[in-house]
Amino acid sequence: MDVLHRLKAICFILTIALPVLLRASDLALIPQPTRIENRVGVLTLKGPITVACASRRSGAGAAAELLCSAMSADLGEPASRITQQARATFVLSIRPGTGGDESYQLDITPHQARLAATTPAGLFYGVQTLRQLLFQVRDSKELPCLSIQDQPRFPWRGMHLDVSRHFFPVAFIKRYLDALALHKLNVFHWHLTDDHGWRVEIKRYPRLTSVGAWREPKDGNDWIYVPERSMDPAKRTYGGFYAQDDVREVVRYATARHIRVIPEIDLPAHSMAALDAYPELSCSGRPFVPPKVVNEQTEFTDPFCAGNEATFTFLEGVLTEVMTLFPDRDIHLGADEVRKTSWKACPKCQARLHGLGLKDEEALQGWFMQRLARFLATHHRRAVGWDEMAQGGLPKGSMMMHWRSWLGDAAVIEAVRAGHDVVRTSMDDLYFSPLETSKPGVAAREGLPAQLTRILHYQPVPAALSKAEARHIKGVEGCIWTEDVATESRAMKTLLPALAPLAEVAWGGAGSRDPVIFERHLRPHLRFLEACGLEHAPLPEIGHAQTNGR
Ligand code: ACM
Ligand code: ZN
C-alpha cells in the first residue's frame, strides 16, 4: 500500500468507521448482540408509527402485537398494525433460513426498520432488543440506523426459583418470567418441592398439599418464621401451593414468552414435606423428626424408602400428573444431598440393595434415580438431576446440572465424555445471593458489585473439552434458593440486576464479558427495568476498579 492509499485508509477510519464504532458502544443493550454495526442516519419515530408483518405465521403477528405495545410502553408513542409493508415503519418477517433457531436480524434505515428471524422465538428476541432501543430514544424519538445480527451462544439460558422455603404466588411468578424474557432467557426451573413445603397440587395424593404445603411458624429459622407475614403461631398455616390450573396458567404465560418451564420434584431426599403427608413411605414409617443439632451429618433429611414398592407407585403417580401439567421434555428429579443413614438401618432398603447385588447405598441411589428416569423415558421425557445423580451412575440419556463447583470440573468432563448433556449451575459462580439478610447482625455473603462481577466472569465450558464435546455443555442457569428470601421484594432484588450478567454469559454476544462495557450499560438498563415495573437491588456508586473485588 503506498503512502497515499494509507492516508486515505486512515482518513476513512477517522471520518466514517470511528464515529460508527463509538456510536455502537453507546447503545446499552443487555445482553450484547453478536454483531452490531452502526449506519449513517436515524429513523424518526414521530407521527403515525406502523407495524406490518411480511409473513402470515402466527408468531409474526404475536411479535407485531408485542412491538405495538412496546411502542406505547417503552417509547411513549402509539403504534398501529397495517398491511402495506412498503409504508410501514417496522416490518417483521419469519423467513426460513435466516439463521439459527433463535437468531434474528435487525436492519434500521432512515426509511424503515426490518426485523427478520427463522422462528417466532427469534422475532421475540428481536423485539426485546427493540424494546431496549426504543426506551433509550424515548426523548429524541430517533432510532439510530444500524444493523444487528444476533444469536445466543447457548440453547439453555436458565433461571431457577425455590418456591418451597417460601411460597410465591402466580402473579409474582409472572413478573419473574417477565424479567427472564427481557434478558432473553428461555428456561424457568421451578423448584416445586423440598423439605419445607410441597407446592404443586397432585390430585391423586391430596395430602401433599393439604398437609405438605403448610407449616407452623417457629422462631429461630428464617425459612420457617416470616415476621413480614402475620399468622397464628399455634397453627400450621404458613405456606401455599399452585393448583393445577395455576400451573397451566404459568406454563401458558411462559410459553408465550418462549420460556420452557422445567418442574423439579426433588427426590429421593429433600422430601420431608411429602413424608410428613405420607409417612408410611419413609424408612421408619413415621413422620421425620428434625435433628436437635444441625451439623454436617444431620443437616440433610431422610429420603423416601428405596426398599418399599409403595414408594415407586406413589412417585410414578406423582410424575404421571406432573407430565400432564408440564409439556416440556425435561423433568428435574433432584438427587441432591441425600443422607443415607436411614437406608443403612432399614431392612427393606438393605434387602433391596442385596437383592440387586448393589455395592452400597450410593449405588442404591443410582438404582432409584435410574428406575424413575426409565419411567420418564417410557413417556418420552428426559430426567434431569443435580450432579449427585452421577455418584450412583447417571441414568441413560439423562441431563446433569452441575452445582458443586468446589469439587472442580471432573464430574462435568466425565458426564460429557459419557455422552450426557450438562447445564452449569455452579454454586460459587451462579447462585444469586440475597443482598440483605433477615438475621440481625448477619452480613450478606457479598455486595452487589462483587456479585455482578463473579457472575459476569464465569466460564461455563471446561478448557479440557474438545469442540465436539463442548457441544454437550448446553448452557448456564442462575439459582435462587429462598431460605433467606421470604418476601417478593427481596426475591426481585435478588434476581435483579444479577440477571443482567447471567444473560451476558448465557447469550454470549461480542464483548459480553467486558466489565467496563457492562458497567456502562447497566445504569440505563436499570432505568429500563424500573420503567417495566421491575424492582431491583440498588446499585451503589462504583467505579470499575471496585467492581473487580470479590
Ligand atoms: C443444591 O443446591 N442443593 C442443588
Ligand atoms: Zn427403607
What summary fits the major beta sheet? Answer: 8 strands, parallel, barrel
Strand content is 15-25%
Strand count: 19
Bound molecules: acetamide, zinc ion
Computed Rg: 26 Å
Distance between the termini: 49 Å
Low-pLDDT segments: 7-22, 224-230, 544-550
User: Main sheet: which strands, in order across?
Assistant: 8-9-14-15-16-17-18-19
Estimate the helix proportion, in percent.
25-40%
Alpha plus pi helix count: 19
Estimate the mean pLDDT confidence.
89
Counting helices, strands and paired strands, the structural category is alpha/beta
Q: Which word captures the global form?
A: elongated
Task: Explain how this protein is built.
This protein is α/β, with parallel strands linked by helices and about 550 residues long. Helices cover about 40% and strands about 15% of the residues. It has 19 helices and 19 strands. The strands form 4 sheets. Strands 8-9-14-15-16-17-18-19 form an 8-stranded parallel β-barrel, surrounded by 5 helices. A 7-stranded mixed β-sheet has the order 1-7-5-6-4-2-3. The protein has a two-stranded antiparallel ribbon with strand order 10-11. A hairpin with a 4-residue loop joins β5 and β6 (about 115). α4 (about 170-180) runs parallel beside α6. The protein is elongated and about 80 Å long. The model is unreliable at about 5-20, about 225-230 and about 545-550 (pLDDT under 50). Zinc ion (ZN) binds near residues 283, 305, 307, 348 and 349.
